């Protein structure tokens, strides 16, 4: 009995000690440039941050454009002829546009243009339309992309940090995704 109480107290102490570290991830002044798959801040200045319930409400209302920024490895250019290449399948929130590789901290000019053009396509050029950016849980790609969308003049940017991980965990539908062709494709 005492051993169980001591173990329980130890677990509570460890969990309580770990919570501030997870909740205390500070927002960088600029974009995140490394370690993209790690805990993210709970905030993003100038951007509305939503959980799965709110993301679902926005999605069901058809009032927003959803943009997935999960990276996608390109087909290697030097594959011998006849070699099969299979992209890793991606399922995203239905109706989303997939703009891979646009959540890095630094983008080549062609990729910055690709991102800007993709957002323009997703919103029909309406910078006031609600724009929801996501990737996976604990992924800085969507944080960077939401920050970048704000800098491009989008006025109603929403960051969904749980991404498709949170969406799937809630049992919500996904659909197979094909990315928008990148400039080099």
Structure in words:
This protein is of the alpha/beta class. 36% of the residues lie in helices and 12% in strands. It contains five helices and seven strands. α4 links the parallel β5 and β6. The longest helix is centred in the first third of the chain and has 22 residues, at 2-23. It is globular, with a radius of gyration of 19 Å. Mean pLDDT is 88; it is low at 1-22.
Task: Give structural attributes.
185 residues, five-stranded parallel beta sheet, single chain, alpha/beta, disordered N terminus
For the report, how would you describe the main beta sheet?
5 strands, parallel
* Topology order in helix (H) and strand (E) letters: HEHEEEHEHEHE
The proportion of residues in beta strands is 5-15%
- What structural class do helix, strand and pairing data support? alpha/beta
Approximately how much helix is present in the residues?
25-40%
Question: N- to C-terminal separation?
Answer: 65 Å
Number of helical regions: 5
Radius of gyration: 19 Å
- Counting DSSP E segments of at least 2 residues, the number of strands comes to 7
SSE order and pairing:
Blueprint: H1 2-23, E1 48-49, H2 52-61, E2 64-68, E3 91-92, E4 97-98, H3 109-123, E5 130-134, H4 140-151, E6 157-160, H5 163-169, E7 175-176
Parallel strand pairs: 1-6, 2-4, 2-5, 5-6
Antiparallel strand pairs: 3-7
């Amino acid at each position: 009995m005492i051993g169980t109480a001591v173990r329980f107290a130890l677990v509570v102490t460890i969990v309580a000690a770990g919570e501030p570290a997870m909740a205390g991830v500070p927002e960088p002044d600029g974009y995140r440039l490394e370690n993209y798959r790690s805990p993210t801040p709970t905030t993003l200045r100038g951007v509305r941050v939503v959980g799965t319930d709110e993301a679902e409400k926005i999605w069901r209302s058809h009032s927003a454009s959803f943009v997935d920024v999960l990276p996608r490895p390109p087909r290697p250019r030097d594959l011998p002829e006849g070699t099969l290449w299979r992209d890793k399948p991606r399922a995203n929130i239905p109706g989303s546009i997939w703009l891979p590789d646009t959540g890095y901290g630094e983008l080549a000019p062609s990729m910055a243009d690709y991102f800007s053009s993709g957002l323009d396509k997703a919103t029909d050029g309406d910078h006031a339309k609600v724009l929801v950016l996501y990737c996976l849980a604990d992924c800085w790609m969507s944080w960077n992309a939401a920050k970048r969308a704000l800098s491009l003049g989008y006025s109603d940017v929403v960051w969904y940090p749980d991404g498709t991980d949170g969406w799937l965990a809630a049992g919500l539908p996904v659909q197979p995704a094909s990315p928008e062709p990148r400039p080099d494709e």
